[in-house]
Specification:
It contains 16 helices and 6 strands. By secondary structure, it is mainly α. It has 2 domains: 233 residues, no CATH class; 145 residues, no CATH class. Strand 1 and strand 2 form a beta hairpin. Helix 3 packs parallel to helix 7 and helix 7 packs antiparallel against helix 8.
Length: 396
């Protein structure tokens, strides 16, 4: 069995961080960004060392570092300040933007041109686009053109070009990395087959970063999957059920997490049936009723809309597509944590919940827990779906 010792070290750091992050997410429903940094630093060093052992290709290594730096810089631009549970605050300093931007722009130059065995003229327009997008966004951030109050209820409903650019520019960055990595893969003097790892990192991480920006995925959950892909891109050793075809560990972690996460809806449905809770079938799997008087002390998203007319409270469940729309816009979706932390902003809703008696909320088991379980099972057993398919095919 082949053992990749740099990945063993990285796996220990990743596992320790994920277990602690799961604890924080259960306790506080948030994971301060600072807690990801030791895992990321360890993982980047180990992954960079592994790439050097396998290829001794500085161009490939700087390409990997460029990808990581671009994600971190995008997050820096998207978050003007952070306060973590240790009391440390990372203030958004406008003067620092261009120093970080310079580093982000230099790394692709080193990868695609300086250390590349031969200059590929096809890379020039893609670098120009990469530099142009990040420079433009950085300038607009410096000028405060993206500033908004996310808690403001009466925001304008008409299309906002500034908000659209701020939300979607990173799609272009991911697309550029995808295309340039393909060019380095196809170039005889490029990165060789190891470019596939960078390609998978870019696509996989890009999807979840964008999902998080669209409010379709939890921020901590997205960063967990992104940093696992950066820190532990391949299996540290051959798992018991064999290595899946892609050999990309993060994908197996996600598949395992999704499979393991199916246990919760089934359990919720059984509990609702036993307790004789009644709701449309879909909601029976994903939520349960709670006391309207104590909803502030529960965890989850409210699954019903309430109205009061002549003293009578009417209610209806939020439709699936309406729920997706609210997640994307960040409006109209009530989180019980907000009811607890900002009750002054939800006086009308709280009054309606008390009058209604019971309120259906979604279950709130943080997805980072099945991600952690998916990581452990992926390292030990491999991809559970792939293993099941092998069993069906008679391969095990």
């Amino acid at each position: 069995m082949e053992i990749l010792y740099p990945m063993i070290i990285s796996a220990v750091a990743v596992l320790a961080t994920m277990i602690y992050a799961s604890y924080l997410d259960i306790r506080d429903r948030r994971v301060p960004f600072i807690h990801w940094l030791p895992m990321l630093v360890t993982g980047v060093i180990c992954t960079g060392f592994l790439l050097w052992q396998v290829t001794a290709n500085f161009s490939l290594i700087f390409g990997y570092l460029s990808l990581v730096a671009s994600f971190l810089y995008a997050d820096y631009l998207d978050n003007r300040g952070r306060t973590d549970s240790l009391g440390l605050t990372f203030y958004y300093r406008k003067a620092s933007i261009f120093y970080y931007l310079a580093l982000v722009l230099i790394l692709p130059i080193l990868s695609w041109f300086v250390f590349a065995p031969s200059v590929n003229i096809q890379m020039v327009p893609w670098y120009a686009m990469f530099a142009g997008v990040f420079s433009y966004i950085s300038y607009r951030e410096y000028k405060g053109m993206f500033d908004e109050n996310p808690r403001q209820k009466n925001r304008k409903k008409e299309p906002n070009i500034s908000e659209t650019i701020n939300r979607w520019y990173f799609v272009l960055i991911v697309l550029i990395f995808t295309i340039t990595t393909l060019l380095m893969l196809l170039n005889p003097d490029g990165w060789g087959s190891q470019a596939i790892i960078i390609l998978l990192m870019a696509v996989f991480s890009g999807v979840f970063y964008i999902f998080a920006r669209m409010h379709l995925f939890g921020g901590a959950d997205a960063w967990a999957l992104i940093f696992i892909s950066f820190s532990l891109p391949v299996f540290p050793f051959t798992p018991l059920f064999g290595e899946p075809p892609l050999g990309f560990l993060s994908f197996s972690v996600l598949i395992n997490a999704l499979l393991l996460n199916l246990i919760a809806p089934i359990g919720i449905f059984i509990i609702n049936v036993i307790r004789k809770n009644r709701a449309p079938l879909m909601y029976m799997f994903f939520g349960f009723p709670v006391n309207g008087e104590r909803i502030q002390y529960e965890w989850g998203f409210v699954m019903e809309d309430f109205e009061e007319n002549k003293g009578k409270v009417s209610r209806k469940f939020v439709g699936f597509w309406d729920s997706i729309k609210r997640m994307y816009s960040g409006e109209g979706r009530v989180y019980t944590k907000d009811l607890r932390e900002h009750p002054e902003e939800f006086q009308k809703e709280l009054a309606l919940y008390r009058k209604a008696g019971t309120v259906w909320i979604s279950y709130a088991v943080p997805f980072i827990i099945p991600i952690t379980a998916g990581l452990i099972t992926a390292i030990i057993f491999g991809d559970l779906l792939f293993a099941f398919m092998k069993i069906i095919a008679g391969g095990i």
